[in-house]
């Protein structure tokens, strides 16, 4: 039996994305009624294909959380000069930086090899992101967000975390374990899976310990190997899980037209691939 709600949502999502993309030059100039400054640095990794969704992601952050010290879009190397200009027009806090210009830390040679030469482009992109994440100098609250996250009216919860005296890292719990078990040495390491799409740091964490496992145990990474590195690094750093009622990552409404979650009451939702079409149904919330 045909699921009309699901297929209608997919069609509506594609249509909304098409319209948003066509109107992108006008959208970035629409005023955002926000004067609140937030003491946080934000980073997001994306590519030319992600231009429209990245614009929507940034605008939702400014609208519902505030204007950060800086919002750095880490380009995988594919953003055109015109697309970089479009992103920078959203707000003065937005800048687009090539990943190589940020990957300046003590990066193991095997990561450079994956980031430059891995035969699968999606895997290559994830290791470019990893090279940047481990290079960041973190002296202020710092957020990493995937482009397919929409921030919502409950975004003040993010401000509260940034302003709190708690220096613990915070991570987004995953709804399903998407991990590379080759680098999980004990059963307890599979518990409380971390999604690498959003996290908050107030100081840099140790990436090298889990990365050493990759070097020792992995011939070639798969798509979720880097997420497993994030998972291990977060738990090694005693990171805390974000409230799943306010920081939503779930696909339980994949086959329905409407969201199961009231976007007026949550801080964000991560629209992973199974529900990516719903991202485009919720831009106005």
Provide a compact summary of the structure.
This protein is an alpha/beta fold and 285 residues long. It contains eleven helices and ten strands. The protein has a single domain, classed as Spore Coat Polysaccharide Biosynthesis Protein SpsA, Chain A (Alpha-Beta Complex).
Spell out the key features of this protein:
Spore Coat Polysaccharide Biosynthesis Protein SpsA, Chain A, 3-stranded mixed sheet, 285 residues, 7-stranded mixed sheet, single chain
Question: What is the CATH level 1 assignment?
Answer: Alpha Beta
- Would you tell me which CATH topology applies? Spore Coat Polysaccharide Biosynthesis Protein SpsA, Chain A
> Could you give me the name of the CATH homologous superfamily?
Spore Coat Polysaccharide Biosynthesis Protein SpsA, Chain A
Uncertain spans: none
Distance between the termini: 31 Å
Strand-and-helix sequence, N→C? HHEHEHEHHHEEHEEHHEEEH
The coarse silhouette is: globular
Query: Strand tally, please?
Result: 10
How many helices? The count is 11
**Strand portion, in percent?**
15-25%
* Class from secondary-structure proportions: alpha/beta
User: Main sheet, how many strands, which sense, barrel?
Assistant: 7 strands, mixed
Overall helicity: 25-40%
Residue-averaged pLDDT = 95
* CATH architecture descriptor: Alpha-Beta Complex
Number of domains: 1
Strand order of the largest sheet: 3-2-1-4-7-6-8
């Amino acid at each position: 039996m045909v699921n009309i709600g699901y297929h209608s949502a997919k069609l509506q999502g594609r249509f909304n994305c098409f319209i948003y993309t066509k109107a992108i030059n006008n959208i970035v100039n629409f005023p955002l009624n926000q004067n609140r400054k937030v003491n946080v640095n934000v980073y997001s990794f994306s590519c030319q294909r992600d231009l429209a969704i990245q614009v929507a992601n940034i605008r939702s952050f400014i609208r519902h959380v505030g204007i950060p010290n800086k919002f750095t879009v880490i380009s995988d190397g594919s953003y055109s000069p015109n697309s970089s200009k479009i992103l920078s027009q959203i707000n003065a806090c937005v800048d687009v930086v090539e990943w190589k210009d940020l990957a300046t830390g003590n990066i193991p040679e095997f990561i450079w090899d994956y980031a430059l030469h891995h035969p699968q482009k999606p895997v290559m992109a994830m290791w470019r992101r990893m090279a940047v994440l481990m290079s960041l100098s973190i002296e202020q609250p710092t957020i990493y967000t995937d482009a397919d996250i929409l921030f919502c009216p409950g975004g003040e919860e993010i401000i509260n975390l940034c302003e709190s005296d708690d220096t613990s890292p915070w991570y987004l719990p995953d709804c399903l374990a998407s991990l590379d078990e080759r680098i999980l040495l004990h059963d307890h390491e599979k518990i409380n899976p971390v999604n690498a799409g959003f996290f908050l740091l107030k100081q840099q964490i140790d990436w090298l310990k889990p990365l050493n496992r990759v070097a020792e145990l992995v011939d070639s990474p798969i798509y979720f190997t880097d997420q497993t590195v994030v998972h291990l690094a977060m738990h090694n750093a005693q990171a805390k899980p974000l409230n799943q009622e306010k920081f939503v990552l779930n696909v339980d409404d994949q086959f329905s037209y409407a969201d199961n979650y009231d976007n007026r009451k949550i801080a964000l939702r991560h629209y992973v691939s199974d529900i990516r079409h719903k991202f485009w149904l919720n831009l106005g919330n």
